[in-house]
Specification:
306 residues, Pept_M48_protease_HtpX, mainly alpha, Protease HtpX homolog
Length: 306
């Protein structure tokens, strides 16, 4: 691969890079400490703990794109089926000088898009049929540029790994508690078993909470970074702002039951699957507010105008 392919023309973002490195370091540190604690408490079961932690991590890292696609109902789309979609991505990838990701479509009325994959060569960009039906070509271009920015900056992989570590802590804890590793008789009078039954779940909750907070902070920043990069690449921040306004408004009108099914994947979406009430009250949102995103795009528009 040539050097021009290793770095795209998407504007580099040192703030995003610094936050990704810091988030991964802190989450990794917390998780290593958690695994070490389990090894000390569970003693004889340490080989299985190490194997389980490492195995689940590798599976998630290598197959994250497939797992996410299946969970969100995405299916790879051919250029014959969606020529406009492929044409827009082809133009953006040529403009950004980056490899073209796989293109997928999810048959879902909720207007949205997401990108996933551990590296640009293995990435997939997916849009819903609801998004294709509602957006004008220049608005769709802005959304796709936003998703391609995630791929180029590799923050998709960081979010996938960071989010998974918290879930992995919970899975490991459940296996430790209910897999017989704390003794055959959990109701025995062994004080060490009683202490472990209290400590392990508490530490697991702390690990999950820290992972949750760190990934939320990174997620909000990376969305602003992707908006910024997409606007600068296309030179049309107003089109992206129009798409944001339209998508957010249309999502708020989607039935609540459908939104709840999509909410576990909010960190990957172009716009969160939230009702108008939820968007206004959610404290730990995966995305910055619509107002903040529009303000940034307005500033970029003014800068480009000058």
């Amino acid at each position: 691969m040539s050097s021009t392919r290793q770095h795209s023309r998407f504007a580099p973002d040192r703030g995003l890079t610094g936050r990704m490195v810091t988030t991964m370091f802190l989450i990794g540190l917390v998780y290593v400490g958690f695994t070490g604690l389990l090894i000390v408490i569970l003693r004889g079961a340490w080989p299985l703990i190490v194997l389980l932690s490492g195995g689940l991590f590798v599976v998630q890292f290598w197959f994250s794109d497939k797992i996410t696609e299946k969970a969100m109902g995405a299916h790879e789309a051919s250029p014959e089926e969606y020529p406009q979609l492929h044409g827009t991505i082809d133009r953006l990838c040529a403009l950004a000088d980056m490899p073209k990701p796989r293109v997928a479509v999810a048959r879902n009325d909720m207007p949205n898009a997401f990108a996933t994959g551990r590296k640009p060569e293995k990435a997939v960009v997916c849009v819903t049929t609801g998004l294709l039906r509602r957006l004008e070509p220049e608005e769709l271009e802005g959304v796709l540029a936003h998703e391609l920015s995630h791929v180029a900056h590799r923050d998709v992989a960081v979010m996938t790994v960071a989010g998974f570590l918290g879930v992995l802590a919970g899975v490991t804890t459940r296996i430790a508690l209910y897999g017989g590793f704390l003794g055959n008789n959990r109701n025995s009078n062994d004080p060490n078993t009683a202490i472990a039954l209290v400590i392990v779940p508490l530490v697991s909750m702390v690990v999950y909470a820290l992972s949750f907070l760190l990934t939320r902070m990174l997620s909000r920043y990376r969305e602003l970074a992707a908006d910024r990069s997409a606007a600068q690449l296309t030179g049309r921040p107003s089109a992206l702002a129009s798409a944001l306004t339209k998508v957010t408004g249309q999502i708020a009108a989607i039935p609540t039951e459908d939104l709840r099914k999509a909410q576990p994947y909010n960190a990957f979406y172009f716009a969160p699957a939230l009702s108008a009430r939820d968007a206004a009250t959610q404290l730990f949102s995966t995305h910055p507010s619509l107002e903040k995103r529009l303000e940034q795009l307005a500033r970029i528009s003014a800068e480009l105008g000058r």
